[in-house]
Amino acid sequence: MTDSKDLEAEIRPLKNDDRKAQENPGSPAPKERGLKPPPPPGLSRCRTAAFFLSLFAFLLAVFVVSFIVPCPDRPASGSTWTISYNAAVAYDFLATGDVNKDRIQDVLFLYKNANGSNGSLSCAEEGFSSPCTFVAAASGANGSILWERPVAQDGALVECAGPQPRGSEASPACILLGRPGPFIAVDLVTGETLWTHPSGFRGNVSILSPLLRVPDVDGDGAPDLLVLTREGKQVHGYIYSGSTGQLVGPPGSLGVDGTSGAVLHITRAGAPYVLLPCVSSLCGSSVKGLYEKATGRVSPLRVDPLWEGMLNATSHQLHLRSLDAVRYVMSVPGKVGEDLLLVTSEDCMLLDGQGLEPRWTLGAAQILRKPVLGHYKPDTLAVAIENGTDTDRQILLLDLSSGAVLWSQALRGLPGGPQPASLPTADHRSAFFFWGLHELAGANQTGPGTALHSLYLLHPTLPSVLLELANVSAHIITSRVVLLEPGRHAACVLLTGPAGPDAPGPVSVVKYKVQDLVPSGRVVHLAKGAPDSDQAVRNRLSRLRYRDAA
Ligand SMILES: *[C@@H]1O[C@H](CO)[C@@H](O)[C@H](O)[C@H]1NC(C)=O
Ligand SMILES: *[C@@H]1O[C@H](CO)[C@@H](O)[C@H](O)[C@H]1NC(C)=O
Ligand SMILES: *[C@@H]1O[C@H](CO)[C@@H](O)[C@H](O)[C@H]1NC(C)=O
Ligand SMILES: *[C@@H]1O[C@H](CO)[C@@H](O)[C@H](O)[C@H]1NC(C)=O
Ligand SMILES: *[C@@H]1O[C@H](CO)[C@@H](O)[C@H](O)[C@H]1NC(C)=O
Ligand SMILES: *[C@@H]1O[C@H](CO)[C@@H](O)[C@H](O)[C@H]1NC(C)=O
Ligand SMILES: *[C@@H]1O[C@H](CO)[C@@H](O)[C@H](O)[C@H]1NC(C)=O
Ligand SMILES: *[C@@H]1O[C@H](CO)[C@@H](O)[C@H](O)[C@H]1NC(C)=O
């Protein structure tokens, strides 16, 4: 089955050509009729025949060009590649983007090689002492390094394909904020510096992830950047121009004791608010308010009168009914505009994105990892959550709009294990990828360093089966399941390395093709008496077609 979008794209040029073809022979006719007497019926029939013949020839030509003449060969990505370093550390960052313009997504990652690096630039040239943190772009097709460069002393926050310079044809950029280190924008294609500035943070601050992209606050035509920091118990927001990287004013306060995991939420009135988990609540501010207080200038952005009433102007807390400690907040698509999915220390709930009334609450849930969205039923969003840890862990798939449990399964897993993932499939559902501790090999192991992690695939059309795709014994820092080539096979990219940044060890970036893992996968039957044989399950799962995430 082909993706419906692809089909449309193929049909459309035909339609347009078709219309043109009909207009052209048709348009001279009325003029001729005005000048000359109507031609004898024989001639007209002849002309009609000629017209249809030429139309037929034309369509045949279109058909030949679009379907029979083969497309120029696209470089197909190899099934597996590995990049490894002997003595390095890696950071929780993996991104994809088309760096070398071969229509295959390439992979970006951060690493620090204890031996120093042999990239074109050395740490010293960028003002760091060796060893320092590099960002590298690896070809998605074969894993060869396309470019790499030093970006920070020790780790960095990264936001790729972020704001682009105003009105430009410029290639996308990655913005990196060193911890510590400067604020740098790097051209995704060449790895060259677009701009660099000192971060401008005072003294002892910790930078809260993530680096947020916000709508254009200063009216220069480019989206801007917001960095949240914590100094003592105060959270501050620093706004940077997205086009030049310049700090636009002194930092604005954002309430007390906030933690990482801020989101940008757009209210129904189109007003952007930054929200972050803070003591027993959710704190926030309008982006306009932050900017105006910091600079004294007027921002073209909006505020939402309802939200201004709900936000305490001094504490920056939202007036919510008593909340337990908030662990995660996510802005999720709702029926109208965005809603908020909130994970607290006790439960998981969906709040209306405008009035913040709870839509549903799943009580008594111990959720230690950020939920992941996907489609369990066609075109209907579901949320995958993990309740509990270790032998008590359960994976639940909930209907996002009602909170109803669609699927649940116990699967051992450790708190530090990798994040689950989902990828849309051609039938408008999603394939879900979960990491678990291997039930046999992992039984007596407790430390995350020694555990055998297994990657499981679930597709909603086979809800009683999990397919164990791979076993990984190295410590997984992060992983992603992505489509490296539009309309082709799913790939799993895995970054493994030492558990902490202090002890260098083997680091590797590995790309697997999911389809190559399926034939050797182990089928785990969840329900007794499932009718399908293992081979039938593998066959069905290897025929899955994936779509690009919309
Ligand atoms: C890198 O480090 C390893 C061990 O730490 C050492 O054996 C190797 O010679 C080093 N390589 C270089 C190029 O310095
Ligand atoms: C760095 O140098 C080592 C040998 O010194 C080589 O094996 C490795 O491929 C080089 N890495 C890059 C990214 O050029
Ligand atoms: C890897 O692929 C790129 C194109 O994507 C090509 O230029 C390069 O030569 C390839 N390298 C190897 C080692 O095959
Ligand atoms: C910086 O803050 C951390 C905790 O936030 C504290 O442990 C450390 O002592 C502080 N350092 C200085 C120099 O104030
Ligand atoms: C806002 O928060 C402060 C400090 O927590 C509190 O004293 C004040 O009463 C709050 N204001 C409103 C209107 O709730
Ligand atoms: C979550 O797990 C706990 C035990 O770890 C259990 O008591 C609770 O019922 C579970 N919640 C849901 C919604 O399944
Ligand atoms: C795990 O440990 C228990 C005792 O601690 C032992 O009986 C069992 O055989 C061990 N299982 C495996 C798979 O090693
Ligand atoms: C993972 O390891 C277990 C135990 O060694 C083995 O039974 C299973 O087949 C392995 N799975 C894969 C996908 O290789």
UniProtKB/TrEMBL annotation:
Keywords: Glycoprotein, Membrane, Signal-anchor, Transmembrane, Transmembrane helix. It is found in: Membrane. GO terms for cellular component: cell surface; membrane. Residues 1-40 are annotated as: Disordered. The chain crosses the membrane at residues 49-69. It is a single-pass type II membrane protein. It comes from the Eukaryota. Residues 81-547 form the FAM234A/B beta-propeller domain. InterPro entries: Beta-prop_FAM234A_B, FAM234, Quinoprotein_ADH-like_sf, WD40/YVTN_repeat-like_dom_sf. Its main location: membrane. Pfam families: Beta-prop_FAM234A_B (PF23727). Belongs to the FAM234 family. This is Protein FAM234A. The lineage of its organism: Eukaryota, Metazoa, Chordata, Craniata, Vertebrata. The gene is FAM234A.
